[in-house]
Amino acid sequence: MTEADTIKMAQATEGDWGGFHSGEQGAKQRVPTTEAALESALAARLGPFHPVISL
Q1: Domain limits of the chain?
Q2: pLDDT per position as a tens digit, 34-46
């Protein structure tokens, strides 16, 4: 499973990944916040027009 797959699976139907900042995280999830998901996407070299990032 690629990093993009992990990020996509954790994405909510609204297109986010929970709270934006790490201070807002609730339940322990694989991708706990939108901030963490976007940082992971950048580290995996997913551009702004990758299907995981752009809705």
Answers
A1: 1-9+31-55
A2: 888 888 888 888 8
